[in-house]
Amino acid sequence: MDGTVLVADDDRTIRTVLTQALTRAGCKVHATSSLTTLMRWVGEGKGDVVISDVMMPDGNGLEMLPKIAEDRPGLPVIVISAQNTIMTAIQAAEAEAYDYLPKPFDLPDLMKRTSKALETRRHAPAPAPAEAPAPGEDGELPLVGRTPAMQALYRLVAKVMNADLPVLVTGESGTGKSLIARTIHDFSDRRTLPFVTVTGADLRELEGPQRVLARVKGGTLLIDEIGDIEDEVQARLVRMIDAPGEHAPRFMATSQGDLARAMEEGRVRRDLYYRLTGATLHVPSLRERVEDIALLTEHFLARAERDGLARRQLSEDAQELFRTYSWPGNVRQLENAVRRLVLTSRADEITRSEVEQILGDQPETEPVLRGQAGGENEKLSASVARHLRRYFDLHGSALPPPGLYPRILREVEAPLIEIALEATGGNQAKCADLLGINRNTLRKKINDLEIQVTRRRKLM
Can you give the pLDDT at residue 68? Predict the structure, then answer.
């Protein structure tokens, strides 16, 4: 890389790491903990790329972007922030930031983005950001999550917000698909126009499409559960998308199922599928973002308190049950459970037994559904992959500790040998033959894995 990079961050460690990495890559670096100093450097014409944190001791880095664009049109600004909310991603996009990375960031990834910024500098001045509408309650959008899966979703929402593309939002029931669609509309250029949600029933009559278009008036039209709409209505919908009239709306759709598979199976028309999949956003289930459960729980507890209900908190045992429970109804089920617990709890601290009573006999592990992840038809490799992904997700944006390969092998080998010993009644010769390994190898593994052979019993 060749160029001068201006780094602004109040964390001395981050400034040091970035300075060393960029210097080794061939760049000149000016680092500061002050936005005032950064803006002075920008005004003096220094720097080819800016890397700036958002929350600084003397101001907000996002609020400086319009001024930077005015003083130095085309100067790329990469925003890094520990404020990992969808608002940060949207504000960075609206302020024409060159790129946005949530903290903790991956250093090689940031280096690649910096290199690209140096090579592809913008040539036109960035427009001042449009005034954003008031977000959700108390200035906070009801989209909560700091896991990599949610951060990736936030970035996509910011990118497609004003793109002239139809959007398909997929995900399980209760994940917040309609909320994502509404967020895209509320922060887009169509925010002052209507947002209308329809189902197949609204389009069954011949006049249905015209009535819907008259309601949406060039705003955003969200078609709920597109995969459940019958073929005749799908054909009518295709014609409406092709000829929307003078005030064409932005088309969006939601789907719980795999729409591509539904198309291949003939349940969704190909022409409709390709008209609605300009951009596809997947909203992860709670099982895919376990580390967000505590954050969501605190959010819903605080919301209940703002609504005038008693202040409550979960005991450690209750929190652990929340974390290990499968949440088949996802965020919607979690919110309802928290609300009920706040209303029914007898003390300030919600106990595990109270949580168990609310959750009833639902499983604490991932739900088993035929034909879906964890179902009866799932291959062993797919099951292992799910557990490995969850293990990685538990570490957030950081990597698991070194030595992962032998650690995972040990986790798989131990139960495999134990179960094989049970099945063969503890007979090591039969067990070795069953596993297809040498008997001496089996003995060594039993010792290394500290497997208690004497406790093995033959399975009936």
Answer: 87
